[in-house]
Amino acid sequence: MSTSAARPVDVVVVGAGFAGLYMLHRLRGLGLSAVVLERAGDVGGTWWWNRYPGARCDVESMQYSYSFDPALQQDWHWSERFAGQPEILAYAGHVADRFDLRRDIRFETSVTAARFDAGRGRWLVETDAGAWEARFCVMATGCLSTAKLPEIPGIESFAGRRFHTGHWPHHPVTFAGRRVGVIGTGSSAIQAIPVIAAEAARVTVFQRTPNFSIPSRNKPMDGDYEGWWKRDYGAHRRRARMMRTGILYEINDKGAMEVDPAEREAIYRRRWEAGGTSFMGAFADLITSQDSNDTAAEFVRGRIREIVADPATAEALAPKDHPIGTKRICVDTDYFATYNRPNVTLVNLRAHPLAGITEAGVRTGAGEVTCDDLVFATGFDAMTGALAAIDIAGRDGLLLAEAWRDGPRTHLGLMSAGFPNMFFITGPGSPSVLSNMMVSIEQHVDWIAGALGAMAARQAGVIEPTAAAQEEWVRHGMEVANRTLYPRAASWYMGANVPGKPRVFLPYIGGVGVYREICDKVAAEGYPGFSLSRAA
Ligand code: FAD
Ligand code: N01
Q1: Which of 102, 132, 350, 403 has a CA that sits 20 to 30 A from residue 234's CA?
Q2: pTM of this prediction?
């Protein structure tokens, strides 16, 4: 594509999920021209793609929503404690309408390449529907937007219907009377299995690694609770932004071993009954002390053994290979109880390894299970997958794939040296997936908008992190991660689910509030660690 055919704008934003939508809104406020390029047919990102049965958020809806517009957060009413996918998608659509965003979004447009022309200080962004030329490029491509099928021999030979939770069809899918195989037992599967099992003739779950899951205790929105939030939304949001996870909930400041076993049990039980991810706030040291973590893990294993009637199934479902919380903790509705249904069977792939997929179903060490449908709940090439799928070349033709060969290298998760004027929203090296993503998205968008405003005031045309600042941030990120139990789990946080992906801890675990203070300080001090110049 020649440069002359490319359409000029100030900013190209890639992705029209919650990040891209808010970025566009802020860019307009700065008086910049912008286009958002989006592969999907409409706004919503994650919530446009993940339409599987049972899909819903696990951060309470009163918090899993934008805070940037006081009227929006007062007007919108969530019908449940944890909203389901259709309602979250409707919310994204409402925001797009309310702020008239769609007129600057090109749907069904996939970005294939982005090349920086240093001479002209422009990014040339190529898509399957023409090219764009921009001073700035904002990658709002999502951390969990590249669905991943597993490397299982014979996968293409299956003759029945095949689904991936992250790429679910837009037409209604019924499982009535069908024999369904589900591969995977992460968050998506744990939400989908109970709903599919309620409809299907038979469900066989193929589990490689069991996961910890906490009941959501989802329920219709309580009017008093909604009122509590709405009466002082601004203040509650400000507090949430300074929490470790960006979620406002009570975190016990005691360590688990500081209390006696009876009190510990009572605290866990209260959190279990309350439901949701706040279980991990039961004690301050659950992600740093193995001994403390063991007590929480054993409590949850105890609940699984209580709920699941068949002792062998309960034991297979009880996670023992990773500390609780070091893989994204799951939140469910009736997940473990679903295994008491007569139409649900668990196949433990650790005991009976998966041999392959056949035309008729799934073959394991225990024999072949015939299936009409296969649901792959096998996750994503997380955090870097969507960026790696774009051929990105920065200064002097430096390829992002090359620069990140040993793992992503960013300064603050926001930019990467050698890629001037390219920003990442919730990129690797930022709290992103370890947080309420809405809080992290707004913080990144606001920081980027602030940087663009500062550049305009200084008449700077180019911003780029220094190599030294970036190396220090990468080092600091690893140091903080190594103080926790997280690197002990073979998780997607570590890139462990993608063969050949470097094993580095991808998000920043220093905490959302701490991270915000670091970013704010950088902005307040005139962007040390970044070079701002007039020209490239
Ligand atoms: P996305 O919503 O992923 O949007 C990125 C968009 O970029 C996508 O629409 C994609 O099509 C587009 N894109 C990517 N590459 C290209 C390209 N090359 N060309 C064109 N377009 C491209 N987070 C929470 O905090 N709480 C939750 O409860 C929660 N629940 C989740 C449930 C599920 C099932 C999943 C998968 C994730 C969940 N998350 C949750 C994380 C969720 O991804 C974020 O909360 C948030 O929706 C991300 O928004 P985003 O705009 O950054 O990215
Ligand atoms: O994906 P996952 P996900 N053979 O990677 C298994 C967010 N989210 O879509 O652990 C057999 O967690 C794999 O097994 P193992 C949330 O951040 C949130 O469920 O590798 N099995 C695992 O069980 C979440 O963490 C919600 O041994 C194979 C599963 O597939 C993230 O998205 C809901 C296999 C993948 O689990 C991803 O969740 C949904 C193979 N070859 C998603 N390959 C909320 O509730 C993979 N697996 C908010």
Answers
A1: 102
A2: 0.98
